[in-house]
Design goal:
about 350 residues, about 5% strand
Length: about 350
Amino acid sequence: MDTPQIIAPSRAPSSGVVHSNTRHTSRFTVVGNHLAQHGELSLTAIGLATHIQSLPAGAGIGIKLLADRFPESEARIAAALRELEAHGYLKRTRERLPSGRVVTRTVSYNQPVTDGRPVAMPRPHPRPHPRPQSQQRKPRPVHLVPEPPPPAPAAAPTPAVPAPPAPVPATPAPAPCAPAPAPAAPAPATPAPAPRPEPGAPTPVPPRPPLPRPQAHDPDRHRAASALLADLRRHEPRLLLGEADTHRLAPAVAAWLERDAHPDVVRRTLVADLPEPLTRPAGLIAHRLTALLPPPLPTTAPAEEAAPRHDPLQNCDGCDRAFRAPEPGHCRECRTGLEAA
């Protein structure tokens, strides 16, 4: 009866969270513990990555859309997106469409990737739970063993006597030097082949061509071009340009006017068929002014072809019939009869 009885602890933890789980059968998303328990991501980044992975393909995840839906500010959401990009959960690339519009392509990864390959995430090691006091082992007594005495120092070794140096052989006389061969002509440098793009890598965006500029500076034409750009918002409210963009685009419009393009034609070209939505009106106008620039008119008009010249009508001196000839006289029949006579 003196033996103490050890009672097994209950399975429920004495402190911390207690899970009450219900099995999901629809409308659920699988998220890995490497994301939910990430040690370097902020809680905002973890929650944002979970929200992005739960969205269907093609859903918009712009910073303004997320800021309108959640209480976090745009700066905090932008910082969380940069965290996800740095740890391989998100990839954003900017691409230019054939229409000239620049869009952002976003790819969300449920496993972090680096250079297109998934990163192996280490499994978190659970912390050991402390054992009850009744199950803790008692420390064993430690017996100290005396250390053996240090060994006696060894005798110093006797220094070896150095051997006498070997005789140096006589240096042979140098042979006469032969003439050095002429240096060969350098081979033509072969241009290195252009590196092939890796599969799946984004297509590099070609550089933008420069804006057209007029051949001669005309202050009146420049003022007319600035007035045309500032007046675009009266015809299309979405084409509201800033003062800096107006000064930058005015030389391109002056180049159109220099090539005898009517201002109404320039205005219709810039206003017609605008895309939806229009996010950068200055970029669209710069693209159209560069890509649709008309060729200059020919300096000289083609020479008109000379009209065929006809001889005037004459009355024959013999038969009084009309015929064409440069001078008056006889017709062909009368001349034939005179020659036969």
